[in-house]
Amino acid sequence: MPTATIARLSPRARPSRPEASVSRTRYRTIFISDVHLGSRGCNADLLIDFLDHVDSETMYLVGDIIDGWQLKRRFFWPAAHNDVIWRLMKRARRGTRMIYIPGNHDEMFRQFAGLDFGGIQIRRKAIHETADGRRLLVLHGDEFDAITLSHRWLAHVGDAAYTLLMALNRRVSAVRRRFGMPYWSLSKHAKAKVKNAVAFISRFEEIVAEAAGARGVHGVVCGHIHTADMREIAGVAYYNDGDWVESCTALVEHHDGRMEVLHWADVIAARAASEVVAAVTIAA
Ligand SMILES: [Mn+2]
Hints:
By secondary structure, this protein is α/β, with parallel strands linked by helices. Helices cover about 40% and strands about 20% of the residues. It has one domain: Metallo-dependent phosphatases (Purple Acid Phosphatase, chain A, domain 2, 4-Layer Sandwich), CATH 3.60.21.10.
Protein backbone atom coordinates (compact mmCIF):
# COMPACT_ATOMS: atom_id res chain seq x y z
CA MET A 1 0.00 0.00 0.00
CA PRO A 2 1.55 3.38 -0.95
CA THR A 3 2.51 5.64 1.96
CA ALA A 4 0.03 8.35 0.88
CA THR A 5 -2.83 5.88 1.31
CA ILE A 6 -1.64 4.87 4.77
CA ALA A 7 -1.26 8.55 5.75
CA ARG A 8 -4.87 9.16 4.75
CA LEU A 9 -5.89 6.23 6.96
CA SER A 10 -4.50 7.82 10.12
CA PRO A 11 -7.22 8.46 12.75
CA ARG A 12 -6.62 12.24 12.61
CA ALA A 13 -7.10 12.38 8.82
CA ARG A 14 -10.53 13.54 7.72
CA PRO A 15 -12.70 11.47 5.39
CA SER A 16 -13.25 12.90 1.91
CA ARG A 17 -16.97 12.68 2.65
CA PRO A 18 -17.97 13.85 6.16
CA GLU A 19 -20.44 11.71 8.11
CA ALA A 20 -24.08 12.55 7.45
CA SER A 21 -25.62 14.26 10.50
CA VAL A 22 -28.81 12.22 10.67
CA SER A 23 -30.32 10.24 13.53
CA ARG A 24 -29.21 6.63 13.32
CA THR A 25 -31.33 3.52 13.73
CA ARG A 26 -29.86 1.60 16.65
CA TYR A 27 -29.53 -2.17 16.57
CA ARG A 28 -28.03 -4.53 19.10
CA THR A 29 -25.72 -6.08 16.52
CA ILE A 30 -24.77 -5.47 12.88
CA PHE A 31 -23.10 -8.06 10.67
CA ILE A 32 -21.61 -7.15 7.28
CA SER A 33 -19.21 -9.01 5.00
CA ASP A 34 -17.88 -9.25 1.45
CA VAL A 35 -17.33 -5.53 1.01
CA HIS A 36 -14.33 -6.14 -1.30
CA LEU A 37 -12.64 -2.76 -0.76
CA GLY A 38 -9.87 -2.38 -3.34
CA SER A 39 -11.98 -3.87 -6.11
CA ARG A 40 -14.10 -2.00 -8.64
CA GLY A 41 -17.14 -4.10 -7.70
CA CYS A 42 -17.43 -2.59 -4.21
CA ASN A 43 -20.49 -0.37 -3.77
CA ALA A 44 -18.71 1.90 -1.28
CA ASP A 45 -21.25 4.73 -1.71
CA LEU A 46 -24.15 2.55 -0.58
CA LEU A 47 -22.09 1.18 2.32
CA ILE A 48 -21.16 4.73 3.43
CA ASP A 49 -24.85 5.64 3.37
CA PHE A 50 -25.61 2.50 5.43
CA LEU A 51 -22.89 3.23 8.00
CA ASP A 52 -24.12 6.83 8.42
CA HIS A 53 -27.70 5.69 9.10
CA VAL A 54 -27.22 2.81 11.57
CA ASP A 55 -25.45 2.14 14.85
CA SER A 56 -25.04 -0.84 17.17
CA GLU A 57 -23.47 -2.05 20.41
CA THR A 58 -21.54 -4.72 18.52
CA MET A 59 -20.48 -4.98 14.90
CA TYR A 60 -19.06 -8.03 13.18
CA LEU A 61 -17.02 -7.69 9.97
CA VAL A 62 -17.53 -11.21 8.62
CA GLY A 63 -14.68 -11.36 6.08
CA ASP A 64 -13.65 -10.25 2.60
CA ILE A 65 -13.73 -6.63 3.79
CA ILE A 66 -10.60 -5.85 1.76
CA ASP A 67 -9.95 -7.69 -1.52
CA GLY A 68 -6.27 -8.55 -1.32
CA TRP A 69 -6.49 -10.70 -4.49
CA GLN A 70 -7.67 -7.73 -6.60
CA LEU A 71 -5.24 -5.30 -4.96
CA LYS A 72 -2.31 -7.59 -5.79
CA ARG A 73 -3.37 -7.65 -9.44
CA ARG A 74 -3.95 -3.92 -9.81
CA PHE A 75 -3.86 -1.23 -7.16
CA PHE A 76 -7.28 0.40 -6.88
CA TRP A 77 -8.15 2.47 -3.82
CA PRO A 78 -10.50 5.43 -4.34
CA ALA A 79 -11.26 7.95 -1.59
CA ALA A 80 -14.63 6.31 -0.88
CA HIS A 81 -12.82 3.10 0.15
CA ASN A 82 -10.75 5.09 2.66
CA ASP A 83 -13.98 6.65 3.91
CA VAL A 84 -15.36 3.19 4.69
CA ILE A 85 -12.24 2.23 6.70
CA TRP A 86 -12.34 5.61 8.48
CA ARG A 87 -15.96 5.04 9.49
CA LEU A 88 -15.26 1.52 10.78
CA MET A 89 -12.29 2.74 12.83
CA LYS A 90 -14.31 5.67 14.17
CA ARG A 91 -17.02 3.23 15.37
CA ALA A 92 -14.42 1.31 17.34
CA ARG A 93 -13.19 4.60 18.92
CA ARG A 94 -16.77 5.60 19.78
CA GLY A 95 -17.13 2.37 21.77
CA THR A 96 -18.80 -0.08 19.40
CA ARG A 97 -17.44 -3.56 20.09
CA MET A 98 -15.87 -4.43 16.72
CA ILE A 99 -14.95 -7.99 15.75
CA TYR A 100 -13.21 -8.61 12.43
CA ILE A 101 -13.17 -12.16 11.07
CA PRO A 102 -10.99 -12.15 7.91
CA GLY A 103 -12.20 -14.18 4.92
CA ASN A 104 -10.35 -15.72 2.00
CA HIS A 105 -9.87 -12.46 0.06
CA ASP A 106 -8.37 -10.77 3.13
CA GLU A 107 -6.66 -13.88 4.49
CA MET A 108 -3.46 -11.81 5.02
CA PHE A 109 -5.12 -10.56 8.23
CA ARG A 110 -5.74 -14.07 9.55
CA GLN A 111 -2.18 -14.21 10.88
CA PHE A 112 -3.22 -11.47 13.35
CA ALA A 113 -6.13 -13.51 14.78
CA GLY A 114 -6.25 -13.03 18.54
CA LEU A 115 -4.82 -9.49 18.37
CA ASP A 116 -6.58 -6.13 18.63
CA PHE A 117 -5.84 -3.19 16.32
CA GLY A 118 -7.30 0.25 17.06
CA GLY A 119 -10.02 -1.36 19.16
CA ILE A 120 -10.92 -3.89 16.45
CA GLN A 121 -10.60 -7.51 17.61
CA ILE A 122 -9.30 -9.80 14.89
CA ARG A 123 -10.56 -13.37 15.28
CA ARG A 124 -10.71 -16.54 13.20
CA LYS A 125 -14.31 -17.10 14.33
CA ALA A 126 -16.54 -16.00 17.19
CA ILE A 127 -19.56 -17.03 19.22
CA HIS A 128 -22.25 -14.37 19.35
CA GLU A 129 -24.87 -14.56 22.08
CA THR A 130 -28.21 -13.02 21.03
CA ALA A 131 -30.50 -11.02 23.33
CA ASP A 132 -32.82 -14.05 23.50
CA GLY A 133 -29.98 -16.29 24.66
CA ARG A 134 -29.08 -18.14 21.48
CA ARG A 135 -25.48 -18.98 20.65
CA LEU A 136 -24.46 -18.26 17.05
CA LEU A 137 -21.20 -19.34 15.45
CA VAL A 138 -19.82 -16.46 13.36
CA LEU A 139 -17.37 -17.26 10.55
CA HIS A 140 -16.70 -16.18 6.97
CA GLY A 141 -17.61 -19.50 5.35
CA ASP A 142 -14.81 -20.26 2.88
CA GLU A 143 -13.75 -23.00 5.32
CA PHE A 144 -16.50 -25.10 3.73
CA ASP A 145 -15.76 -24.24 0.15
CA ALA A 146 -14.03 -27.39 -1.12
CA ILE A 147 -13.09 -25.75 -4.45
CA THR A 148 -11.33 -22.84 -2.77
CA LEU A 149 -9.38 -25.15 -0.49
CA SER A 150 -8.30 -27.97 -2.76
CA HIS A 151 -7.91 -26.18 -6.10
CA ARG A 152 -6.70 -22.67 -5.46
CA TRP A 153 -6.08 -21.99 -9.18
CA LEU A 154 -9.63 -23.02 -10.02
CA ALA A 155 -10.92 -20.54 -7.47
CA HIS A 156 -8.92 -17.84 -9.29
CA VAL A 157 -10.44 -18.80 -12.66
CA GLY A 158 -13.80 -18.41 -10.99
CA ASP A 159 -12.59 -15.09 -9.61
CA ALA A 160 -11.71 -13.85 -13.13
CA ALA A 161 -15.14 -14.82 -14.50
CA TYR A 162 -16.69 -13.16 -11.48
CA THR A 163 -14.70 -9.94 -12.08
CA LEU A 164 -16.00 -9.87 -15.66
CA LEU A 165 -19.58 -10.32 -14.48
CA MET A 166 -19.08 -7.49 -11.98
CA ALA A 167 -17.75 -5.20 -14.74
CA LEU A 168 -20.90 -5.93 -16.73
CA ASN A 169 -22.97 -5.31 -13.62
CA ARG A 170 -21.39 -1.85 -13.21
CA ARG A 171 -22.16 -0.93 -16.81
CA VAL A 172 -25.81 -1.92 -16.42
CA SER A 173 -25.97 0.07 -13.16
CA ALA A 174 -24.45 3.16 -14.80
CA VAL A 175 -27.02 3.07 -17.62
CA ARG A 176 -29.87 2.56 -15.16
CA ARG A 177 -28.60 5.46 -13.01
CA ARG A 178 -28.55 7.73 -16.05
CA PHE A 179 -32.21 6.95 -16.63
CA GLY A 180 -33.01 7.50 -12.96
CA MET A 181 -33.77 3.84 -12.33
CA PRO A 182 -32.97 2.28 -8.92
CA TYR A 183 -29.96 0.00 -8.36
CA TRP A 184 -30.54 -3.48 -9.75
CA SER A 185 -28.05 -6.32 -9.64
CA LEU A 186 -27.50 -8.07 -12.95
CA SER A 187 -25.13 -10.56 -11.34
CA LYS A 188 -27.61 -11.44 -8.60
CA HIS A 189 -30.22 -12.30 -11.20
CA ALA A 190 -27.73 -14.08 -13.46
CA LYS A 191 -26.63 -16.25 -10.54
CA ALA A 192 -30.20 -17.21 -9.69
CA LYS A 193 -30.65 -18.39 -13.28
CA VAL A 194 -27.55 -20.56 -13.40
CA LYS A 195 -28.45 -24.00 -12.09
CA ASN A 196 -24.91 -24.79 -10.90
CA ALA A 197 -24.70 -21.60 -8.87
CA VAL A 198 -28.05 -22.34 -7.23
CA ALA A 199 -26.98 -25.91 -6.43
CA PHE A 200 -23.64 -24.68 -5.05
CA ILE A 201 -25.35 -22.11 -2.83
CA SER A 202 -27.86 -24.54 -1.33
CA ARG A 203 -25.14 -27.17 -0.79
CA PHE A 204 -22.96 -24.54 0.91
CA GLU A 205 -25.83 -23.51 3.18
CA GLU A 206 -26.52 -27.12 4.19
CA ILE A 207 -22.86 -27.87 4.94
CA VAL A 208 -22.42 -24.73 7.05
CA ALA A 209 -25.63 -25.39 9.02
CA GLU A 210 -24.63 -29.03 9.53
CA ALA A 211 -21.20 -28.04 10.88
CA ALA A 212 -22.80 -25.52 13.25
CA GLY A 213 -25.27 -28.15 14.46
CA ALA A 214 -22.39 -30.55 15.17
CA ARG A 215 -20.77 -27.86 17.34
CA GLY A 216 -23.90 -27.63 19.45
CA VAL A 217 -24.75 -23.98 18.72
CA HIS A 218 -28.23 -22.69 17.88
CA GLY A 219 -27.20 -21.11 14.62
CA VAL A 220 -24.52 -19.76 12.34
CA VAL A 221 -23.76 -16.38 10.75
CA CYS A 222 -21.58 -16.32 7.65
CA GLY A 223 -20.97 -14.52 4.37
CA HIS A 224 -18.77 -15.59 1.45
CA ILE A 225 -21.38 -16.65 -1.15
CA HIS A 226 -22.80 -13.12 -1.62
CA THR A 227 -26.33 -14.34 -0.98
CA ALA A 228 -28.12 -12.99 2.08
CA ASP A 229 -30.56 -15.36 3.70
CA MET A 230 -32.03 -16.41 7.02
CA ARG A 231 -33.79 -19.72 7.41
CA GLU A 232 -33.89 -22.88 9.47
CA ILE A 233 -31.84 -25.80 8.09
CA ALA A 234 -32.10 -29.12 9.97
CA GLY A 235 -32.91 -27.38 13.25
CA VAL A 236 -30.07 -24.84 12.92
CA ALA A 237 -30.65 -21.13 12.28
CA TYR A 238 -28.72 -20.22 9.14
CA TYR A 239 -27.93 -16.53 8.63
CA ASN A 240 -25.96 -15.03 5.75
CA ASP A 241 -25.34 -11.28 5.75
CA GLY A 242 -24.85 -11.13 1.96
CA ASP A 243 -22.43 -8.60 0.46
CA TRP A 244 -21.78 -5.05 -0.79
CA VAL A 245 -20.79 -6.02 -4.34
CA GLU A 246 -24.02 -7.46 -5.68
CA SER A 247 -26.90 -7.20 -3.25
CA CYS A 248 -25.80 -4.52 -0.71
CA THR A 249 -27.22 -6.27 2.34
CA ALA A 250 -26.55 -6.42 6.07
CA LEU A 251 -27.78 -8.68 8.84
CA VAL A 252 -28.99 -6.92 11.99
CA GLU A 253 -30.08 -8.12 15.42
CA HIS A 254 -32.83 -6.07 17.08
CA HIS A 255 -32.75 -5.43 20.83
CA ASP A 256 -35.08 -8.40 21.47
CA GLY A 257 -32.86 -10.84 19.56
CA ARG A 258 -34.95 -10.76 16.39
CA MET A 259 -32.81 -10.93 13.24
CA GLU A 260 -33.42 -9.13 9.95
CA VAL A 261 -31.70 -8.84 6.57
CA LEU A 262 -31.60 -5.22 5.38
CA HIS A 263 -31.52 -4.63 1.60
CA TRP A 264 -29.96 -1.19 1.56
CA ALA A 265 -30.82 -0.23 -2.05
CA ASP A 266 -34.49 -0.80 -1.11
CA VAL A 267 -34.09 1.29 2.07
CA ILE A 268 -32.63 4.17 0.03
CA ALA A 269 -35.43 3.88 -2.55
CA ALA A 270 -38.08 3.94 0.23
CA ARG A 271 -36.38 6.97 1.82
CA ALA A 272 -36.37 8.83 -1.52
CA ALA A 273 -40.04 7.97 -2.07
CA SER A 274 -41.06 9.23 1.39
CA GLU A 275 -39.09 12.46 0.80
CA VAL A 276 -41.05 12.99 -2.41
CA VAL A 277 -44.34 12.31 -0.60
CA ALA A 278 -43.36 14.78 2.17
CA ALA A 279 -42.44 17.45 -0.40
CA VAL A 280 -45.73 16.95 -2.24
CA THR A 281 -47.71 17.06 1.06
CA ILE A 282 -46.05 20.34 2.06
CA ALA A 283 -46.66 21.78 -1.41
CA ALA A 284 -50.34 20.77 -1.18
MN1 LIG B 1 -15.15 -15.06 0.64
